[in-house]
Design goal:
There is one protein chain. By secondary structure, the chain is an alpha+beta fold. It has one domain (46-248). Helices cover 22% and strands 15% of the residues. The strands form 4 sheets. A 4-stranded antiparallel sheet has the order 5-6-9-10, covered by helices on one side. Strands 1-2 form a two-stranded antiparallel sheet. Strands 3-4 form a two-stranded antiparallel ribbon.
Length: 252
Amino acid sequence: MKISIRCKYSIAFTLIELLVVIAIIALLIAILLPSLSLAKERGRTVDCKSNSSQLFLAVQMYTNSWNDSYPPAWDLKITPSIAWCGEYKTVSGVKYMDVTKSPLWPYLQEKKTLSCSSFTGFTVKYAGSGAISGYGINSQYVAGDPDKDPNGMNGYMLPARTGQIADPDRTIAFADCALFDTTNQRAKEEIFIYPLYRSNGVKNKASFHFRHSQTANMIFCDGHVDNLKAYQSDTTGNGLFGWIQNDLMDRE
């Protein structure tokens, strides 16, 4: 004997109901995606702050070994010349930076420290190794003193001693850094921090890069890290390009 059970009611969606469900899902995704992106960027910002702290810790160990002197922005006295972040090379037409030649390398020993995860996808100046990606040293007042040689490079070999920094809690050591590449219309890597003005009044290109949700990580000579917006670090009145005023960069 066969028993057949038939459902009195059939369950089905109408086209309108299906479209409503799809619209609701799309709306939820649109609401959640910015939050997820913001959360990811906050994570990258924290990671970048950690890199900045590691860089400054390496600088502190360097100064302890080198008579309280900061590393030079670029040492031209030796051949090949060495920047604070390594040796600049061109091999078979490819430019890259050998970070193992950096004066800070003995205190770092990890390329990741020199790479900001929020700087991926930009035009990288030192493309071969990709090791230096987005950080710059204060070449104007900490790792160098271009005022001593305004028309040349010798000023980049004149780093300060720790005792020469008049206000270490207000003098930037490292920061998120980049310059605008007019050819490719994109940000490109830069290894030196440039403020709006040098202390002799000569106008210069600013190289601070506000990449973390319109903010930039900056580590100061006392070791503290700030995440600042352009208007928070600019008292020149225009606030358009993230200039940093001289009194945040100066030394005696």
